[in-house]
């Protein structure tokens, strides 16, 4: 086990080959002038090759990606590596410590990427994450989970119209892939603008470690590393059980009350199937919700208290 070294800059040239290095990268200073440091794990092979970047916990309470990254570095043979793997298990350090999704100023970091060089607290943090870390990558895998009060399948968001990105997504052996063009403000969108092929892995539920999901996430990443030739991992055949969606959207409550959502994640619902029941505080059914079309349940709300406008279910329209 090597002691982590504190650095101000990630210089790939000077990182030793053939071992796994650990770093704390100084990013910004807190209100006492003390550095807030990004933990990094770097595996650099003896042979040159692409730089694969893995990021997790951009939302501070999305934890499943952390052990995915930790275990990946336990499982690879760095001496045989052709290229570099950089893992950032916790991107949003202040929010991780507070067990919160959003940044210190209440802003969602994954809505303001790439931030600003001189800007607000969250903008500066985002800018430095992109410029001190993400710019080194040739490929990006950004690991997320559902938000508080919701559960997710293991699904991938990817621009399936881009051949490289499409292959990256298919290799993950996920339950569901949603075609989703990279959108402004997300880390994936910023990577795309920097010509770094990127996918988002949505690995289950927030605030938890889910063993099965963590294993599935790892399998897909090994697959990708083997496919690109960074490792000699055997590439598992692309699963024909993965459900491909051409788009997806959330269905919302239009009035408030206590909500029960009926289908489970990954279940296929037909048009007209009852998907949710809303009761008032006295227990009377006040509304039932039905699937507007056939689709697969990507995620759903598990938090019963819903004001008008609350989320019910994330429906994927199957390709
Ligand atoms: Zn997230």
Q: What this model shows, in words?
A:
There is one protein chain. The protein is an alpha/beta fold. The protein has two domains: 224 residues, Zn peptidases (Aminopeptidase); 70 residues, OB fold (Dihydrolipoamide Acetyltransferase, E2P) (Beta Barrel). Helix content is 19%, strand content 34%. The protein is built from six helices and 18 strands. The strands form two sheets. Strands 1, 2, 3, 4, 5, 6, 7, 8, 9, 10, 11, 13, 16 and 18 form a 14-stranded mixed β-sheet that branches. Strands 15-14-12-17 form a four-stranded antiparallel β-sheet, with no helix packed on it. α1 packs across α6. It is globular. It starts with a strand and ends with a strand. The relative contact order is 0.13. The model has no long low-confidence stretch (mean pLDDT 96).
Strand content: 25-35%
CATH class of the largest domain: Alpha Beta
Distance between the termini: 47 Å
CATH architecture of the largest domain: 3-Layer(aba) Sandwich
The domain count comes to: 2
**Poorly predicted regions:** none
Radius of gyration: 20 Å
Please state the average pLDDT score: 96
Structural shape = globular
Task: Write the CATH fold name of the largest domain.
Answer: Aminopeptidase
Helix content: 10-25%
Structural class: alpha/beta
How is the main sheet built?
A: 14 strands, mixed
DSSP summary, beta strand count: 18
List keywords for this structure.
OB fold (Dihydrolipoamide Acetyltransferase, E2P); 14-stranded mixed sheet; four-stranded antiparallel sheet; binds zinc ion; Aminopeptidase; about 325 residues; alpha/beta
